[in-house]
Amino acid sequence: MELTIDSRFPGIDDLRNRARQRIPGFAFEYLDGGCNEDVNLIRNTADIREIELIPQYLTKHTGSEMKTELFGHTYDAPFGICPIGLQGLMWPGAPDILAKAAHQHNIPFILSTVSTSSIETIAEITEGHFWFQLYHPTEDRVRDDIIQRAEKAGCEALVILCDVPTFGYRPRDIRNGLAMPPKMTLKNILQIMTRPEWALRTLFKGQPTFDTLKPYTPEGLNLKQLGLFMDKTFSGRLNEEKIKPIRDMWPRKLVLKGVASEGDAQRAIDLGLDGIIVSNHGGRQLDAGQSAIKPLASIAEKYGDKIKVMMDSGIRSGPDIARTMATGADFTFLGRTFMYGVAALGAKGGLHTISILKRQLQQVMEQICCEKVSDFPKHLFQG
Fold first, then answer.
1. d(Cα 152, Cα 100) in Å, to the nearest integer?
2. How far apart are CA 330 and CA 145, in angstroms?
3. Which CATH number do you get for residue 240?
4. pTM as predicted
5. 52-94 tens-digit pLDDT
6. Residue 7 falls within a domain, yes or no?
7. Angle at the Cα of 302 (from 299 to 307), degrees rounded to 5?
8. By CB count within 10 A, which of 95, 111, 233, 242 is most buried?
9. Which residue has the higher pLDDT, 186 or 318?
């Protein structure tokens, strides 16, 4: 796939700044913010960038290859797109834009249960080459039906979420009326009026809704009623007893997202899961916890030969991907970076952002003389 980069926005910070200018403040703060005082949000990226790589300039380097095998599929790069809730709030049609770009660039796209496109829509866009993240429903019948829909649509991997046992305390979202239950405020309306393109595209696309959940949602609910319904319908608290029937039901790859300890990694292995994503939900849940990169090294070293170890949270750029792979990850996922791209450039944002990341990562690999992504740990500075 040809790399296409808009020279006006060559960096991720450029995209973030442009996104802030293009979407209402409440939408940008929902995308950009963490929880409480943003301690772990900031720590996630800062700790990744403490990692240093060592070049081997005099080795016989013949070239660098980003292609990465994961679960029997060879992807064009060792990164994919994280599941993100309410994507259509940040830019109308965002999940469709990103799914299409991921499919064209041959990287994985994970659809969230609470995104604004349905399983069936994303399956059509990606020709069945997508993953799906399941928020755990309180009712078994809803859980079973969603899983069956994902299987029928060709979903390649089911991702179950363990790091949202309760809603994170997010002051910005509370001020902006985006907590549960949500509400529209005069301040939000005034912000929308200052972003006419976003407003017109949202008007054309329609108010963002949880499309995957439409079959289970009563019609005619206002924002407050919808929030109360969501709070009642989904229980984020996952345990071994809830995972076992999912493992029995799901015939393809099953991944646990939100692992932050060796104990949970071992439990995932014991339950027969195929992969884990070391993550702290992008710093949106626990401000008093570790950054995601901190437990990665020990988890990868101890369990990497038993289960695929991936990571998200705090990864923003190609060099960040390289640092994370060098620390022991088999694969990486990014969320905010891609949403900055779509919010900044609309329909072109997905292709543009993937192109930036591929070019950045390729440059790092060639600079340190790393021939394949599995060699990244050989370049890790251990001082």
1. 20
2. 31
3. 3.20.20.70
4. 0.96
5. 999 999 999 999 999 999 999 999 999 999 999 999 999 999 9
6. no
7. 75
8. 111
9. 318
